[in-house]
Amino acid sequence: MQRITIAKGDGIGPEIMDATLEIIKAAGAKLEYDEIEVGEKVYLSGNTSGIAKESWETIIKNKVFLKAPITTPQGGGYKSLNVTTRKFLGLYSNVRPCLSLYPFVATKHPKMDIVIIRENEEDLYAGIEHQQTDEVVQCLKIISRPGCEKIVRYAFEYAKVYGRKKVTCFTKDNIMKQTDGLFHQVFDEIAIEYPEIENEHWIIDIGAAKMSDTPEAFDVIVTLNLYGDVISDIAAQIAGSVGLAGSANIGEECAMFEAIHGSAPRRAGQNMANPSGLLQGAVMMLNHLGQNTIATKVQNAWLKTLEDGIHTYDIYDEKQSKLLVGTKEFAAAVIANLEQKPTTLPAVNYENGQALNLPKYKKRPQAKKELIGHDVFVHWNGTDANELASMLSKIGTPNLKLNMITNRGIKVWPEGFSQTFCTDHWRCRFKTEEGKVINKEEIIILLQQCIQNKIDTIKVENLYQFDGKMAFSLGQGQ
Ligand code: NAD
User: Fold this and answer.
1) Which atom of ligand 1 is nearest to the CA of 276?
2) Phi, psi values for residue 210, rounded to 5°
3) Ligand 1 contact, 256 CB (< 6 A)
4) pLDDT (tens digit, 9 = 90+) per residue, 323-354?
5) What Enzyme Commission number(s) does the record list for this chain (predicted)?
6) Which of 54-68, 76-90, 254-268 is the least confident region?
């Protein structure tokens, strides 16, 4: 027996959780449950995180969490429980299979069978945002080598264990050479360790377009957090089955499994909801727990039930469906099919799948890090960069000279274009001569000079080289 934590959530949550538990129990899942309360009631009791401290203890003790959707009350500073759970528990990998069930569920893409593996903790979702000037706000895009290595390795291990042929990486590294560039570089490094699995990289924009048009060209897709968030919803939708998809959030110690849809409050308490999304989450959970035989049995019974045309209202269609059923009747039909396999849709076999065995991240030796300049960000209301450059001419040290000014990343001095639109947010780059290394005291001198000359500095970003390699971007047009 394995002990897991469950939360029945809000809206349709309790009904779809009961149906899911009934099906996996009938299939022989060896599970015991600790139930916790999360969501609306907890939020409205004044706890803005939507979960009590004791519930965290239960989740951490059991390590595996099956969660029904919850309702996040509007306004009031309530934090998304999903985002908090992913980050607190280090659930770095979000796995979302998007499978078309044609002809039983309508879709324009009958052959689609993609698994999207999305980095779940970093990127713009670190939520580090600041207003810096009247006109400009910023959000930091944080990408780490451990973050990239963990998710890329997860994608290749997933492909290996589940017999997938290809892993595709989506980034925008033609523009974001440092952040997306690191993700792509790590992908190339790790791909070499899996010669039996094909690998490729697409720029996200054209890759997403291709995926929406010809999804059968892809197998496993691994990508950064924001891109993964967007493309996994698109992929689930074009598979014809947003209401049928589940997702897994996997960390080094803990894991959370859920449906991708919300709590659909208008459908609550009417025995109408489709339990398939949560059931798909539960199938991934059974595989994660090593109960692969049970997972295989449940998945094949579910496919057979859909094939039989036994459909809840959300996928009911007069042409393909045979019987309109409620949540309970759908669960009973899946249970009745537990020894069956689909005949048109491909049957699954997870029997030989072992749990993914991922090594812990190993820190690399530190590189030689040398300081060669500073980007000083300035709030200034003028419009002519030459004027700002002349104000900044009084600033500098024997080592550091003004090298460039950009506005929203575009070089405006020296030799800017008068057509370039400028905001009140200026990046002023002070750099040493080629190869000359300085120490941090020079920042203090620069900032003191700025104060004396009434230059409103917002922040300083250090310019480094790592092992002699420049580790910052050039200005656009530089
Ligand atoms: P939703 O996914 O709950 O519902 C959208 C529509 O899809 C519903 O009107 C319903 O018709 C249909 N639907 C969804 N799931 C269904 C199912 N299993 N069976 C049949 N029909 C289904 O999205 P929403 O209305 O935007 O959000 C409602 C609440 O859910 C909000 O409070 C939101 O914050 C929350 N939410 C929670 C999660 C989560 O807990 N993981 C995810 C998304 C939204």
Assistant:
1) 18
2) -65, -40
3) no
4) 999 999 999 999 999 999 999 999 999 987 76
5) 1.1.1.42
6) 76-90
Residue whose pair of structure tokens reads 């996928």 in the numeric block = 315
Strand order in the sheet with 113-119: 31-35, 2-7, 64-67, 255-259, 246-250, 93-99, 113-119, 220-223, 166-171, 198-203
Distance in Å, CA 267 to ligand 1 centroid? 9
The widest CA-to-CA distance across the chain, in whole angstroms, is 82
CA distance 261 to 232: 12
- Mean pLDDT score across all residues of the chain: 94
Rounded CA-CA distance 419/204 in Å is 30
For residues 272 and 252, the answer to whether their CB atoms sit within 8 Å is no
Q: Check if 58 has its Cβ closer than 6 Å to any atom of ligand 1.
A: no
Complete domains list, the chain, with CATH: 1-90+245-290+302-337 (3.40.718.10), 369-470 (3.30.70.1570)
CA distance 52 to 38: 8
Give the Cα separation of 424 and 420 in Å (integer): 13
Residue whose CA is at the smallest distance from ligand 1 atom 38 = 262
Q: State the distance from the centre of ligand 1 to the C-alpha of 313, rounded, in angstroms.
A: 15
C-beta 75 within 6 A of ligand 1: no
The predicted-structure confidence for 109-139, as pLDDT tens digits, reads as follows: 999 999 999 999 999 988 889 999 999 999 9
What per-residue string of b and e applies to 298-335 under the rule 16 or more CB within 10 Å gives b?
Answer: bbbbbbbbbbbebbbebbbeeebbeeebbbeebbbbbb
Q: SS3 for 80?
A: coil
pLDDT of 75 higher than 80: no
Count Cβ atoms below 10 Å from residue 400 Cβ, excluding itself: 23
Closest to 97 (Cα-Cα) out of 287, 320, 266, 263? 287
Compute the distance from residue 222 Cα to the ligand 1 centre, in Å.
Answer: 25
Query: What is the rounded distance in angstroms from the CA atom of residue 454 to the CA atom of residue 266?
Result: 58
Q: How far apart are CA 445 and CA 348, in angstroms?
A: 66
Q: Give the model's pLDDT for residue 243.
A: 79
Whether residue 359 is preceded by a cis peptide bond, meaning omega within 30 degrees of 0, is no
